Amino acid sequence: MKNTMKMLIKISLAGLGVAVVAAIAVAGYLIYPGTPSHASSLVFQGYVPLPSDSVLSVLDYLTVKDDKLFVTGESSGDVYRVQIRKDSLPTAADVAKLHGEPATHGVVIEPSSHLGFVTRSEANTVDIFDPEKMVLIKRIPVADDPDAIFYDERDKLVYVASGDSHLATLIDPSTQTTFATIQLGGAPEYATLDASTGLLYQNLHDANVLAAVDIGNRTVAGRWPLQGCEAPTGMAIDEIHRRLFIGCGANAVLAIFDLHEHRVVATVPIGMAPDSVAFDPPLHRIYTTGKSGVLIVIQQDEPNGYKILDTVHLHYGAHTLTVDPTTHSLYVGYAGLVVNPRVAVFIPSP
Q1: Rounded to an integer, what is the distance from CA 74 to the centroid of its chain?
Q2: Model pTM score
Q3: Exposure of 313 by Cβ count < 10 A (0-12 exposed, 13-18 middle, 19+ buried)?
């Protein structure tokens, strides 16, 4: 009996040791991002650290405006402004922060007033802030669960998509008040503006549908099913070839939607749980990433022809990105667990 007990104790201790080692390995993986895996199409420049007082810092939207990168901290409520340098990587001295309350999502800079507008889904507000001084100016109540936000240059209005409310709120930046609402008929996720038609194309996440929103007339001008695309998330537009690139969160594909035929004409397999999509028109290159932390680089050979150039392993939770249209630099937001969140910077390979 004693020998049996000793053996059981040894087995239990060995199992406990294995579990501890595994837990340490998992914790190390989640905490320390390391270096992205090799890519032939991109060159990794390094990380830009973002200050945070939280144990867990989850980032959400990234937006480039002129020579500044704006990053929202979903879990902390903070908004970061990063000064983009032409010939070197931004440092901690190039980062300014607007303190706020969770959960912060989309941010846009209105060009005439040069003021920032940011959505907060727990407060159900759009906060107006000064992006130079990084101070709050005003809070505007909006419908429940505001998320993505855009500035419509044609109608001079700020468009706010509210997921739980299934509607969009329009804000007049000149008066800093809500102007109207538009019933969308589904839970909006991301959207993109089409400069040539003035329409805003809006993903409806729960219905697997694409809606064309006429902001000027406050109506939904069209609605089309996204066949083969489950739970649409991020989106980008190729205005020249009239294509939308839509990340499909539930079945891990990029759907290519033809704006002439109003249908999905191709799909490309991408990383699990995709979230963000960005398009660099001069390079004919599409970038996607998601909760799995896998960056996919896709080359557009022709309007309906696409190939994967690279599959880059980043870090779990690196689900949001944007492209600088001037420099072609790619910015990817990394969540921070214990360590500070950060932004990974890539440039195209020569």
Answers
A1: 11
A2: 0.91
A3: middle
Phi, psi of 26 (to 5 degrees): -65, -45
* Nearest C-alpha neighbor of 321 from the set 350, 349, 296: 296
pLDDT mean over 185-198: 96
Query: Is the confidence at residue 10, as pLDDT, over 90?
Result: no
What own/partner pairs with CB < 8 Å and gap ≥ 24 does 266-272 have? 266/304, 266/305, 266/306, 267/228, 267/229, 268/296, 268/298, 268/306, 268/308, 270/294, 270/296, 270/298, 271/295, 271/296, 271/311
Band the pLDDT of 310: cuts 50, 70, 90. Answer: very high
What's the per-residue H, E or C state across the chain?
CHHHHHHHHHHHHHHHHHHHHHHHHHHHHHHCCCCCCCCCCEEEEEEEECCCCCCEECEEEEEEECCEEEEEECCCCCEEEEECCCCCCCCHHHEEEECCCCCEEEEEEECCCCEEEEEECCCCEEEEEECCCCEEEEEEECCCCEEEEEEECCCCEEEEEECCCCEEEEEECCCCEEEEEEECCCCEEEEEECCCCCCEEEEECCCCEEEEEECCCCEEEEEEECCCCCCEEEEEEECCCCEEEEEECCCCEEEEEECCCCEEEEEEECCCCEEEEEEECCCCEEEEEECCCEEEEEEEEECCEEEEEEEEECCCCCCEEEECCCCCCEEEEECEECCCCEEEEEEECC
